[in-house]
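Exercise 3.2. Students should predict the tertiary structure of the chain below and write it as structure tokens, then compare their answer with the key that follows.

Predict this chain's 3D structure.
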Amino acid sequence: MAARKKTAKKSSAKKAATKTTGAKKKTAAKTKKTARKKAPSRKRDVDERIAATDEETAGHILDTAKRVHGVIRKAQRPDLHLPVRSLSNVSYDAGRGYLEIGRQRKTRTLSVNTVKNFAQTLRMMALSKELIENSDFATKREAYYISKNWEECKFDEQTESDTVMDDIEALFSVDHVAREQLRFYPEEHGGSVSGPLTVVDRDATGRVARIDCTAFGSGAYSVPTSVEVLEFETDADFVLLIETGGMFQRLQSHRFWERANCILVEMGGVPTRAVRRFVRRLADEHGLPVYAFVDCDPYGIANIYRTIKVGSGSAAHINRFFCVPTARFLGVTPQDIVDFELPTHPLKEVDVKRAKDALKNDPFFQRHKEWRKALEQLIKMGVRAEQQALAKWGLNYVIDEYLPRKLERADRFLP
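Answer key:
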């Protein structure tokens, strides 16, 4: 009799477990369907492609050098016309979807006072042309050290060489040339990727490598510094951008990408240009919705998310290449703090200043009343919350409850 009761209990427990598993699968399927249905993709415009080839980029550099040389031969002072890279020279058009550089220009004319900077600009262009012709590249740090052989033209600090590099990029941005086409790469880590995605890459010899982003065990694929040669194969429903490495690792280790059929991308704070371009290409070429999951604080909203969505003021000349206009803000939102009863920290003075500055000066937040309301709510609450605050309800609450519930209502995400 006792044995029969024990068997009955086991049978009931097994049925309950099966029912729970079935419910989870049903929720996951609903999440996938909703995520795909609720976030329409945006067609790729021809002027948003980094289209310049090596030959074209080298040609633009050579044409500029010839023009400068011709002016000097006429005993006149040459100049370079560069766009002003600041928020004051930026506009936001919701139709185009990014912060766009305005018409203000600054002129760099060769004179006694500017001769060093003018010469440094030409030398940096010459270095870029040499790198292109040799199918090579230089990190930004290496470019700074190379200048030590330029005698009077050498840079004293890397910030100086970085600025000149950005000026050259801005000069040629109208010709669809970015810093990567000039062959200057950053030192920073590109970000991690996990999920149903195969990346087709080619090394310097042309050898093809097929990289399965589900096959890294406890690790993940790392986005390279330049992503233009990559090709993608995927049947994912959406891309989930994650601010912190810790949260990415939790979702990766528990294979959330399998449950939700999504591609996980770790940003590690403000994402690198390579990560932004990587995600932009996934959105454009495969029509994938992109959702951002960041901390609920003015930095996460006004710096990290805003940069992903519409770019930045200082990089307005190349935002059209690197931002992801179709991205939506999944969370953590100010309302999530209330709805999920999250632990918080007081807003610091710098946080309040950043939020108020976004409301007053940033054209993106000024354009969207939903964001104005959210930022005003955050300032009024006087608190901020991290992604990890969801652990209050259990380490895997974010996987089992928070993300599924949010993804079921993707149409309500902040723009």
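Discussion points: The longest helix spans residues 2-38. Confidence is low (pLDDT under 50) at residues 1-47.
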